[in-house]
Design brief:
Layout (H helix, E strand, L loop, with lengths): L1 H27 L1 E7 L2 E7 L4 H7 L9 E3 L11 E5 L2 E7 L2 E7 L4 H7 L8 E2 L13 E6 L2 E7 L2 E7 L4 H8 L8 E2 L12 E5 L1 E12 L3 E10 L3 E5 L4 E12 L2 E14 L4 E8 L21 H8 L5 H9 L14 E2 L4 E2 H6 L11 H15 L5 H5 L4
């Protein structure tokens, strides 16, 4: 009986130890909710900190990942541990590519995190689609926008999810040729409120007849008073047929390039005499200072034409005009030239216009006609110089 009692006592000790161990096991073993990138699982753990819990789950985390609460936080029964790893997103937003990072778990969460409003936009993936934590998630977003397209004299305002200039032109129904000019490249990203201009280019040929200006050559001569000019050889303009290649933008000419030429009439050179004679010495030049054909002779030439000092014509002209073929009567402005013709008398011997505008030779010729018809009495100076 004594030995049996000892055995029972021993069993009681074992049972007591087992009960104590079970109580300790239950006390240290805790249940927590672990959420990793949106995936939930319940974990039972003896760990004392969040960091130990995560280590026990063999999670490969980096310093860029987000853990709530922090890794040093003590573990309590029923607590939530949330882990959001950092993920890469290859984003194309309205044609502009960029590499982004986010702790979001779905496409919608990523767009919100990156500040992209998906309302009305075209998104390459569903909003609830998960992001790949292992490799970059490719995401294309084209937001709605209003664009003005101007072409062919018209303006089109279009609304839609065009990402590039070319897509905006397609929305506007504007076709573009390779020869046209567009204000921005077709592959360039488009922005809301942007205006796209399309300029139509065209090339055409044109054949026209043009004037070829004559060449004018000046020759200096001391036989004419300085400053005077006279055409020695009359020139003439030529003609040519020219073919041009003309560039047009929206119907307006912007360039003209000569591609062919055919001479129809050669131009004729014009030669002009330019006087260099001393204006204070009329005897030094022989050609009219005003450059007119048949103009003023030199004083010496006029005296010689009249027959010299012994000639009655010489004496009359010396008295009437002092050998000036342009002379005008100072007292009444009614008599002109070497012989001081009145206009009616001048016309009576076949002259026209003003006698002072005629050459000295013509004035002398008509003076002789007048003298033959009416004698020397036509000149008041005739009696004064003893002529008649």
């Amino acid at each position: 009986m004594k030995r049996k009692g000892i055995q029972i006592a021993g069993q009681a000790v074992v049972i007591t130890a087992l009960v104590g161990s079970t109580a300790a096991f239950v006390g240290f073993n805790k249940s927590v909710d672990l959420v990793v990138d949106g995936q939930h699982q319940q974990v039972r753990t003896f760990a004392g900190s969040v960091e130990e819990v995560l280590a026990g789950q063999n999670l490969d985390l980096s310093g860029e990942d987000r853990i709530q609460p922090g890794g040093e936080a003590s573990v309590t029964r029923g607590m939530d541990i949330v882990v959001n790893t950092q993920k890469s997103v290859a984003l194309s937003l309205d044609g502009v590519a960029s590499e982004e990072t986010t702790h979001a778990n779905t496409v919608d969460e990523a767009l919100a995190d990156l500040g992209v409003d998906p309302a009305g936009a075209e998104v390459s993936a569903a909003g609830d689609a998960p992001l790949d934590p292992a490799s970059p998630t490719e995401l294309t977003v084209v937001t709605p926008k209003t664009v003005t397209v101007r072409a062919d004299g018209e303006s089109h305002e279009v609304q839609g999810t065009a990402a590039t200039t070319g897509e905006a032109l397609e929305l506007a129904g504007v076709a573009v040729e390779d020869t046209d000019i567009v204000s921005s490249p077709l592959t360039a990203p488009i922005a809301s409120g942007q205006t796209v201009d399309v300029l139509r280019t065209e090339t055409k040929t044109e054949t026209v007849e043009e004037t070829v200006e004559k060449k004018v050559t000046e020759k200096k001569t001391d036989r004419m008073v300085e400053g005077g000019k006279k055409v020695e050889q009359k020139g003439a303009d030529g003609k040519r047929e020219v073919t041009y290649e003309i560039g047009l933008i929206d119907g307006e000419e912007v360039s003209r390039v000569e591609t062919d030429e055919k001479v129809l009439e050669e131009p004729k050179e014009e030669i002009v005499l330019v006087g260099t004679g001393d204006p204070t010495d009329p005897d030094s030049y022989e050609i009219s200072p005003d450059g007119q054909e048949g103009g003023t002779m030199s004083t010496a030439a006029i005296k010689e034409m009249l027959g010299g000092p012994s000639s009655p014509w010489y004496k009359i002209v010396q008295c009437e005009s002092e050998f000036n073929p342009k002379a005008v009567n100072r007292s009444n402005n009614r008599y002109f030239g070497l012989f001081q013709f009145g206009i009616p008398t001048w016309e009576g011997v076949g002259g026209s216009g003003n006698p002072a505008d005629a050459s000295p030779q013509e004035q002398f010729m008509r003076a002789k006609m007048l003298q033959e018809r009416h004698g020397w009495s036509q000149w008041e100076c005739a009696g004064m110089v003893g002529v008649g």
